[in-house]
Amino acid sequence: ILSAWQMFNDFGADGGPAAKELAPKLDLTKAHLSSRLGMALPNIEVKQVVWAIVALKGLGGLLFVIGNIFGAYLLAFYLVVVTPILYDFYNYGPKDRQYSLLLTEFLQSIALLGALLFFIGMKNSTTSSKRNLKKRTPKPKAA
């Protein structure tokens, strides 16, 4: 929630520091995907991507804190989409300083995704067990 708030405050007219960091990585990802798919992808405004990130992190974080499963789904979607773009350790060699920093951040994001999936699983299992308890009717005792 705090990082979303900081991104919101730093946004400015050009998208802020988040847009400056994201722009080259987004262009690289777009070029890679268009070469793999064999077709040109539409132009993506970096400011809109930053707004989407702020919305996913902010709304997902608030809903997650109050225990809503939809917030966990929003945060998981954010991590699945943004983590490979932001932490592109695969574009560096193992001896580069940037490689170890990005790999560490990538692994932390994957750990957070695992925790969110655990939360989603636990929330779903408790919801289904509550439904099963309501469906059961007590059997009348035979006299």
From TrEMBL:
Swiss-Prot/TrEMBL keywords: Membrane, Transmembrane, Transmembrane helix
InterPro entries cross-referenced by the UniProt entry: HR_lesion
Coiled coil: none
Keyword Cell inner membrane: no
Transmembrane segments: 62-87, 99-121
Domain of life: Eukaryota
Name used for this protein in its record: Nicotiana lesion-inducing like
Organism: Noccaea caerulescens
Lineage: Eukaryota, Viridiplantae, Streptophyta, Embryophyta, Tracheophyta
